[in-house]
C-alpha cells in the first residue's frame, strides 16, 4: 500500500477543499445568524469556545496545583481503546501530561467546531473525516521530540534506534509504501491460503478453485464464494484456525471460490459487465457443471457481494433459477450512506476517472490501499510510523496485515463505472435503471432466501446501509449484525467463540427499530449461518475425492497462480 508520502491526488485535494469549507462554514455560521441567538450556528460555536476556554483554565489551574504537590484528576482523558498515550510518562510527568491534555482538548475543540458548522450532512461528513485526519496526524505521539517513549529508547540505545528508524524510512521510500507487517514471514500457498484444492477453471478474469472435501459425506449443492475484487481472496483462507473456507468444508460443504486476477495493462479494457458475466455467472456455471448439482448456494463479500447480486438479478431476469440461496457479507446494494469512502467521491473526481482510466487503463491498488489505510489511520498508519521510523523497530508478523498489504489493481473501465453508478448516483437500488449484460436489472427479482451480515463497527459498509438490502431483495431475508468491523467481524472463527452477534425477526424499513428488538448471542455468526444454510444445501451424498471433471480438469493446485501476482508499486 502507498505510504503517507505517496498520497493520491484526491486525498490531498479533498483535504484542502474541506479546509476551505471549514472556514466558509464557520464564517457563514457567525455572519449569517444573529449573534448569540439560541439554536443558531453562531450560538453553538460560542458555546463550544466557552467550554474550551473553561477546560483550558481548569487544566492550567490543575497544573499549578500539581506543582504544589496537590495533583488532581485529569481534565480530559483519551477515548476508550486509544493506545497512543499508554506509557506512564504521559500520566506521571507533568510536562507530558500537560501536552497530552492540551492536544486532547484541542482535538475536541476542532471536532465540536465541525459539528457546529452550518453545512449540509454530506459536506459535514467530509469535513468531519478530514478534520479527524488532521487531528490524528498532529498527535504529540507522532513526533520524536514530543514522544517520551521515543526519547527514552534513543537514550538507551545511544542513538541506534534513530539510525535504524532512518534506515527503515529510506527502505520504505524506495519501496513506495509504508511497511505494516513483516512481509517476509508469509508466503501465499505456504503458510497462508493453504487449504487443499485445485484450480478447475480459468479465464482472463479469474481462476475458480475447488477445495477438497473434509468430510465423508457432503451436501449435494456446492457453495460458490465471490470475494472482493479489490483484495486477494485468501482473507477467507488465511490459516487453518481462522479459515472460513476450511470451516465450510468441515461442515460438509463443497466449496468453490473465485480467485480474481490481479489486473495488469492487458486487462485495462475489462468492464463491470465482464465481472458479472465472465466472473460471477461463469463461476456458478462451472460449479454446477463440476458438481452435477441442480443448484448452488452463493456467498459474496463486500464488492464481491455487489457483483454477485448483480449477476443474480441478471440470471433471474433470464429465468435462471440455478442459485438456491444468497449470503451477503458486509455488502452495500444501497449506497445513499456510503460511510467514509463517500468522502473521496464526487462528480468532478468521477468524471476525471472516466476521462482517463475509464476509457482503458488500470487503477493502481497502492492508491486504493492508502485510501483504506486513512480510514483507520490510528491503527494502520501512525502506529507504524512511530514503530518503524521513530523507534527503529521492525513490524511484527501478522497474517491479516500481510493480506492487507497485498494490494490489487482494478481495470479502469470497471472502476469508473462502479464509482458513478454505485457510489455517486446509487442506481442499483432503482429497479431497471441499470442494464447489465444487455439485461435490465431489478434486485427485487432476487427471490431466493438471503442471509445478510453486517458488522457493528464497519467503516467501509455501515451496518445501516447493509440493512437496507433486506428491503431490496425479493426473497425472505435473515439479517444478522456481527460485532467488530469490516474484516474482524467477518473473520470470527467459530472455534474461538469470541465476540457476539444480533438477530431479530422484525425486519421492517427501520434499522434502529430492528436493533432495539434484536437478541444478542455470544460467539461467532459462523455457527448461526451454517444452521441457516444447511436446509438449503440438499441431501448428503458420498464425497468425491477427485476434483474437477472431464470438461473441467485440474489446471494446477490451489491457491493457483493468479493470487500470487503482486501489484507493482507506483
Major beta sheet summary: 11 strands, mixed
Number of strands: 17
What percentage of residues falls in helices of 4 or more residues? 40-55%
What is the count of helical runs? Answer: 19
Share in β-strands = 5-15%
The separation of the N and C termini measures 10 Å
**Average pLDDT value?**
91
Structure description:
The structure is a single chain. This protein is an alpha/beta fold and 570 residues long. It has 2 domains: 4-175, no CATH class; 197-337 and 426-564, Alpha/Beta hydrolase fold, catalytic domain (Rossmann fold, 3-Layer(aba) Sandwich). It contains 19 helices and 17 strands. Helix 1 crosses helix 2 and helix 1 packs across helix 5. The longest helix is centred in the N-terminal third of the chain and has 27 residues, at 41-67. The radius of gyration is 26 Å and the shape is globular. The termini are close together. Mean pLDDT is 91; it is low at 1-7 and 25-36.
